[in-house]
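Entry 14. Ran structure prediction on the chain below.
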Amino acid sequence: MAKEIFDVTLFNEFTITCGKEKAIITEYLGKQLVNLFQVFLYYREQPVHKDTLIEILWPESDNPISALKFTIHRFRKDVQKIPFFEGKELILTVKQGYQLNPDFEWHIDSEEFGNLWEEIKFEENLSAKTMKIAYRMVDLYKGKFYISNSQLMWTQQVCEFYRHAYVKCVIKICKKLLEEQKYEEMMTLNYQAILLEPFYEGLHYYYMKGLLETSDYHKALRYYDDLNESFVKELGTGLSMRFKELYDAIMSDHENIERVKIDSLLKQLSRRTEEEGGFYCTFEMFKYMYELVMKSAMRDNKRLYLISFEISHEDDKEEVFKVVNKVKHLIALSLRKNDLFAKINEGQFIVLVDCQTVENAYLIIQRISHRFYKKFRNKKLRLNYYVTEAKLLDPEEAE
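Output, structure tokens:
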């Protein structure tokens, strides 16, 4: 008689499918029972000694034997609520412990993932065969290994193993795609991976490499700036030196930067909707675009103004750091679609506005200031500003 087959998903959520029926296990079992089920699935090829279960699930309990017996009893009762487990005995009592019933066959996504990783983990350059294996791993990984709220140590370790393997797998694929000049495919893969694991720097590195190889220099610089902000905010540290080297390579390669013609930049601005507000870019890109836009303004006899904003706090510089991104957003909302702005440092912004009189520039300042003080009620937090007419510097002045 053929064994009954259960397909188990442990990435992102804990589900079991039997035939056409699918059950989300966390809807039927409490977290302690979910933990127990995961342990049995992990050790399903062998009996699990009572001491092992106690060490994993109740390391600090005053009465672990009683807790174990009660949990096993609850599990056997509650698992019957799952339609395709009704009337089935999942957990067998064996000598000195328990075992998942060997009459059932379990196909587990995380286990398949781990077995595939063993096949490719030492391969530096993927072949056509191992590329298929790597892509299968990518398909299997839907997010980190499911962990209940109790955050058991063993599941934490397993979770980190799978996350690390997934990122390494994606990077192996990226190296191959970069070598084959399949940049769009590489960037698509990276984008999907970043959604699942946003704070692995290596994934962002290959995405930025793709932007460079496709000559999207403006987007690459903006990506670097936004990513560095995000890493500082979430992890307390900026990007590594190899990212900085990528950034410096773009800025020092004037031949590449010159490919970004003024016409294409202005077209980017003109295609934007009014609702998008000001056009934010990195400070390095702002300086480059400033020169291009000023040349165009001189041809059309237009006047532009530069406005600098500085956030300050009487006592605490950390308060400035906390509000920078919010100020960036309210500045964007206060500008028109063809106005440029950038962050000079943590607490200072520069804005280039297209207006014919300084009075109009002050109206923009008033609008931004009003929004600032309406949003931030802290009287010690200030928004200082300075305005001047924008001019195209002579090369000697620029030096």
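The chain is about 55% helix and 15% strand. Will compare against last week's run tomorrow.
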